[in-house]
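re: the backbone from monday

yeah here it is again, tokenized this time
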């Protein structure tokens, strides 16, 4: 029974007689390596059962003690199996006939819900939500998720909107809002007992600079000295002779709050020197504030000597800024896991009370936790909570 393999583009793949050798592969955490072998009968083979194939393999790194999990399927091994397959085919054909008879070409997934959903909150997480909303509407024909340029104004603004809407609804009987969700970079403040959290993703943030600053890496002490006003020119940290000009998010931004708490050790940002970033002084240190992530990145890209902060996905997609490492570490989950990279935060979805299970708010939350939703989260530079070792906490391993 020679095995037949189809491995497009594989390197290091060999077959010698009845032996198949697969190449060594480096796997990321929670990744899988699957091998499909199709065994064919040799001419003249008359035995009623296939012999067990011998599998010799292992995983280096302690996963399951280095063992692998093997599954096997033997087509038409017995009369009982043939009867079972026939029954399944009949059931499948019956279901298909009922579907076509009802005139529904494509049945909606179980998590689809009808109604209109309003989203608000984090500008850093807005790209994920815009893409997920678009796909959810396409998948669920009775769902509407209207989004505008002002849908996401910041974490605190979103929580304020959700709390006010819930209070105005005068809900009774323990019911929660089923048509609103707010997303925050990090946990809510005290005094909002009606808002219930659900961790969604781990967000990585980064410092960004204008090209002419001349820096690619700053120590944590240097970062704190810059925001404390002790470093006012990039030449003081081995950069170019250009004044440091700070561009920050408005108060209420989760990205800004995380910067203050986790990078600056709780120190607040220095005072604003101009209300308009276009008026930043070209010959001395200065600071301004903007409303959203996209505006901040555009401002840093057009302002010589500028230093700002952003979530990683948006910064990576913007060609006009440079990301800055902290103590030599880029913004990666591995650095956060080791406790070496400090600028990260848990992205949390908030509901007002417990939304009904059949509501569009509950359905959209399940969608984000499903495979399609997780793909969207990953594509924008975030990590789904379910991929972390502590999904309920949704924090790096070393935190």
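seq for it, each position gets an aa:
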């Amino acid at each position: 029974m020679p095995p037949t393999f189809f491995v497009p583009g594989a390197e290091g793949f060999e077959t010698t007689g009845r032996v198949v050798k697969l190449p060594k592969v480096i796997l990321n955490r929670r990744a899988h390596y699957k091998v499909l072998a199709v065994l064919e009968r040799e001419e003249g083979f008359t035995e009623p059962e296939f012999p067990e194939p011998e599998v010799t393999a292992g995983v280096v790194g302690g996963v399951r003690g280095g063992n692998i999990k093997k599954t096997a399927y033997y087509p038409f091994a017995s009369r009982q199996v043939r009867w079972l397959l026939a029954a399944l085919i009949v059931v499948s054909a019956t279901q298909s006939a009922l579907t076509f008879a009802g005139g529904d070409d494509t049945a909606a997934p179980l998590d689809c819900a009808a109604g209109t959903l309003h989203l608000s909150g984090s500008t850093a997480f807005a790209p994920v939500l815009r893409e997920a909303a678009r796909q959810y509407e396409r998948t669920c024909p009775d769902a509407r998720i209207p989004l505008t340029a002002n849908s996401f104004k910041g974490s605190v603004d979103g929580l304020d909107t959700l709390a006010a809407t819930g209070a105005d609804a005068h809900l009774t009987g323990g019911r929660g809002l089923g048509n609103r969700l707010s997303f925050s970079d990090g946990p809510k403040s005290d005094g909002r007992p009606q808002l219930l959290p659900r961790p969604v993703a781990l967000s990585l943030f980064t410092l960004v600079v204008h090209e002419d600053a001349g820096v690619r890496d700053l120590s944590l002490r240097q970062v704190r000295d810059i925001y404390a006003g002790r470093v006012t020119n990039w030449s003081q940290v081995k950069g170019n002779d250009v004044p440091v000009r700070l561009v920050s998010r408005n108060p209420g931004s989760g990205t800004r709050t995380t910067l203050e708490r986790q990078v600056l050790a709780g120190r607040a940002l220095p005072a604003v020197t101009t209300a308009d970033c276009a008026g930043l002084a070209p010959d001395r240190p200065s600071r301004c504030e903007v409303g959203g992530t996209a505006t901040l990145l555009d401002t840093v890209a057009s302002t010589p000597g500028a230093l700002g902060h952003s979530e990683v996905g948006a910064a990576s997609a913007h060609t006009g800024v440079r990301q800055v490492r902290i103590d030599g570490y880029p913004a990666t989950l591995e650095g956060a896991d080791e406790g070496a990279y400090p600028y990260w935060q848990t992205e949390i979805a908030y509901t007002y009370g417990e939304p009904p299970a059949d509501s569009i708010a509950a359905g959209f939350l399940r969608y984000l936790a499903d495979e399609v939703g997780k793909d969207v989260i990953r594509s924008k530079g975030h990590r789904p909570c379910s991929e972390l070792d502590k999904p309920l906490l949704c924090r790096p391993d070393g935190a």
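Confidence is low (pLDDT under 50) at residues 1-10, 60-67, 72-77, 89-107. The longest strand covers residues 195-209.
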